[in-house]
Design a protein that fits this description.
Largest sheet: 5 strands, parallel
Helix content: 25-40%
Family: Belongs to the NADH dehydrogenase family.
InterPro entries: FAD/NAD-bd_sf, FAD/NAD-binding_dom, NDH-2
Oligomer: single chain
Keywords: FAD, Flavoprotein, NAD, Oxidoreductase
Strand content: 15-25%
Organism: Streptomyces gulbargensis
Structural class: alpha/beta
Number of helices: 12
Radius of gyration: 23 Å
Pfam families: Pyr_redox_2 (PF07992)
Amino acid sequence: MGAGFAGVACVRRLERRLTEREAQITLLSPFSYQLYLPLLPQVAAGVLTPQSVALSLRRSERHRTRIVPGGVVGIDTAAKVCVVRTIAGEYVTEPYDHLVLSPGSVTRSFDIPGLAEYARGMKTLAEAVYIRDHVIAQLDLADASNDEAERAARLQFVVVGGGYAGTETAACLQQLTHNAVKRYPRLDPKLIKWHLVDIAPKLMPELGEKLGAAAMDILTRRGIEVSLGVSVASVDEDTVTLTDGRVLPSRTLIWTAGVAASPLIGTLGAETTRGRLVVTPEMTVPGFDGLWALGDAAAVPDLAKDEKGAICPPTAQHAMRQGKAVADNLVATLRGTEVTPYRHKDLGLVVDLGGMDGVSKPLGVELHGMPAQAVARGYHWAALRTGVAKTRVMTNWLLNAVAGDDFVRTGFLASKAGTLRDFEYTDAYLTPEQVRAHTGSFRGAVT
């Protein structure tokens, strides 16, 4: 279940290691592509096209996995059946012998007045495309308006979350508006203001003091106002109110304040820690026959660290390696051989801040500026799964560097304000009772 980094790595390994006589493989996913999530801010900024970061699951000539186009909205672990809501809105059941759970994560939100109605996220391809349209629309509307107050509000943007997603989003979109405003002679560039807000005391603390300070310097030099130790108190259609009392006239709030495991995890009745499924080092779910979990939804023990109780962070490099490790353990289980625990030492972090800027820490080496951005883009380019994707991304980077952007809107969801719920379907999951209503015939067969 799931076509993210973990799920796709697992499926590809299973296809290579298992024969058709040994196993049938089914992938449950609403989309027939793997999203390269770290490059989403560049899609929002128009540096990359949406298709370049959506890696097709059907391109491989060796492909033999059956793909069911839908999201898993419930699991009956006793009957070993998944309930899937297809993209046509129908409910179908999929029985399993072994289920690999990699449903990923959703944007973490809080009970803040107005947040559900007015915040936008940066977790899906559709959200990135929508945010680009929305930001350019604010420039268009501000340029057409003769009301100074409205113009100022439309040109003030707030991003919440000082982690990688929020920092890269603010940096890349600031580059978008900085370049776009040159095409709007009626707009004063000084009116465009970007705010990056985070409740944490430091910006991207995982990078360390030196690189965190370098990232802060890059952002402030670009005119992005960074407010730490501050969050959002409330939001409405016209303003964002911060916990320090400031009221920012703004029509744009981009919410990237962390992630939470898929709501599906809470419906299983299994033990969790920090919202993630408790699993063994081999990534089996204790007490559930044939159930495996990995990626953002699982608290996989980090055996590479000496720290007691350490769990792997929800990063792409861990997810890809966990997918391969689960596949190997599944093959070992089917063939009656020994499974092995997952162990991987983190290789470092890369952050692309757009333009010629970045901060990176590959293998513990601290870099910032152009060298850091070169490392970040080199890492992402190498991590892309297919040659076609690598060609598209490299072509997009070169074309953007030479020709720039046309700053056009596609009209995506033009008549409706896209919310977190609209894009991430966080309210689509079934209760255990609703699941059993769909799986009753299977439970009878088990009994």
